Amino acid sequence: MNSAKAVPYLLLFLFLFIKVSAFRMLIFDTKSIGHIAFVEFPVWALLLAIGLLIFKKHRWLTVWIYSFLVSGIFFAVTLYSRYYTTIPSYYDLQQTTQSSTVGTTILLLINPLDFLFFSDLILLAIIGRRWRRLPRTNALKYAVIGFLVISAITTAYAIKQPIIDISYFAKENGYAQSQLVQMYQQTTEKAHASSTELSPKKLEELKGNEFIPVHSHENFGLAEGRHLFVVQVESMQNFVVGKSLDGQEITPNINALLDESAYFSNVFQQIGAGTTSDAEWIANTGLYTEGMVPIVNQLNGDKVPSLAYALKDKGYGSATYHADDIEFWNRDVLYPALGFDEVFSIEDMPDIKQVGFGPADEVLFDFALDELPRQLKTYDRIYSNIVMMTSHTPFLMPEKMQYLNLPKEYEDTHVGNYLQAVRYADEQVGVFIQELKDQGLFDESLIVIFGDHSGIHGSPLSLEDEVLLNDFLGHPYSLKERYTVPLVMTGGGLFEGTEMKRLGGQVDIMPTVLALLGIEYDHPLMGHNLFQYEKNLLGMRYYMPGGSFIQSEQLYKAPGAKLPDMLYDLKTMEKRGKNSETKKHIRDVQVILEYGDSLLKPYIQD
């Protein structure tokens, strides 16, 4: 074998090794060259070597295409992890075209140094001038065999490990292997939970409560016979409620509404990769999502036990409103599966006042209100599910829709833009509530308002933004501020300015609503009636590492790609040392999540 013929190939694999090393160090803070060389690198090198063997007549073209694809993957993963603080799966990388505002969001995430992933293309051009044709050599065959053996060993080992958190799994077993294992598990259905079953009694015991049948709950039937309006507010976090900036309330309308509402101020988001659509799923089914894959993209089209179906049996007609493309996040599959009688999307609403995705929220509410008279004649009672959208990242509001006079230091900042967008959303909620009162429907309805997920997170937050948040809050921005969303339940004569500080999650919305409406539900629910139970134990996937939990006294963040595990006192968010209770909660929340996964199996694709 002529060793000179192997030189250009050695350079190609060296460039690839450097790129893989840079990726590992950036995403996982990995500094072990040995781990990179024997765990992460062989899979990437194997794919390149196989390509060079197969495409003998077009080896340089193969090198260029492969290098560009790998650079593109690393670039995309970097931006994704910078925003979501977790790594994406192969499935997530296919979803980059889902959002019409993705281009604007990407501009907020990019660091010019990210383009260094493509710098090896310049080096390839240089050695391409030296070796215009890559020589034939048996070294490629030996390279394939060597990389194949190492990759097979590491992948076989990875397949035997449980994926509790994908970022931590990828750090330990390799990013490429993590994708291969995910695909393997989805193919063999190992990604789904076993036939774990929990009775309602056992589920409440795991949460720390004594089970009480729903018909015996103190507030059971409090809102029986009323219409139901559920308003899902885009990106609204709980920390804005009751806060002011230079004497200007961020949510004046919601603040005023609290005097005649039950306000749950300690409710955590539980969404996964499907973000807003996951929040719709959870609120309308009382079930968890799988986390890494948007649940809406897995549905097999079968009927899903839901809030709409439960209400249909009581004479309710249901309608859902969202001023976006019906195919976005597969809502054309989701809404029929959830049993909505009427579905309204961007195709049905006036094409005016466009902001971001589509018509502004004021157009959405006007449309929904215009449909009410007909629906009130058609159905005995109505359930309206209204999904707001204007306050979506990157929170760039037209001047006419800006209600806050921001201090100079807040202007053109991510935090300032967010507060402005939330203030607009609050205004539209206020107008809608007032219209219901004017029509005499407020006293005949149960109205539920909740935030779908956090808006302030990830790399769009600059150091300047962090300073502003600290100033706005009066303390550093914590995980609790990031993950808590407001949940407000109101209606004429139902509540008297009650703030509930007990722990809740989005899975608790549907059980609480059903209890208020006096409906006993025959299907399993992961949540419970927030008015009845004091304790809770919540699982969260995707936005916190797998194995994390939120419990009435503790918040545990499991180890992730870069950071070690951490336990916080939920009330003060001060760090605490792990104890026997922590270990028990880790085990219990895993049981809960496995049960949640088992409940999903009938409704998702094989």
TrEMBL record:
<keyword id="KW-1133">Transmembrane helix</keyword>
<comment type="pathway">
    <text>Cell wall biogenesis; lipoteichoic acid biosynthesis.</text>
</comment>
<dbReference type="Pfam" id="PF00884">
    <property type="entry name" value="Sulfatase"/>
</dbReference>
<dbReference type="InterPro" id="IPR000917">
    <property type="entry name" value="Sulfatase_N"/>
</dbReference>
<feature type="transmembrane region" description="Helical">
    <location>
        <begin position="101"/>
        <end position="127"/>
    </location>
</feature>
<keyword id="KW-0472">Membrane</keyword>
<feature type="transmembrane region" description="Helical">
    <location>
        <begin position="32"/>
        <end position="54"/>
    </location>
</feature>
<feature type="transmembrane region" description="Helical">
    <location>
        <begin position="139"/>
        <end position="159"/>
    </location>
</feature>
<keyword id="KW-0812">Transmembrane</keyword>
<dbReference type="InterPro" id="IPR012160">
    <property type="entry name" value="LtaS-like"/>
</dbReference>
<protein>
    <submittedName>
        <fullName>LTA synthase family protein</fullName>
    </submittedName>
</protein>
<dbReference type="InterPro" id="IPR050448">
    <property type="entry name" value="OpgB/LTA_synthase_biosynth"/>
</dbReference>
<feature type="transmembrane region" description="Helical">
    <location>
        <begin position="61"/>
        <end position="81"/>
    </location>
</feature>
<feature type="domain" description="Sulfatase N-terminal">
    <location>
        <begin position="227"/>
        <end position="519"/>
    </location>
</feature>
<keyword id="KW-1003">Cell membrane</keyword>
<dbReference type="InterPro" id="IPR017850">
    <property type="entry name" value="Alkaline_phosphatase_core_sf"/>
</dbReference>
<comment type="similarity">
    <text>Belongs to the LTA synthase family.</text>
</comment>
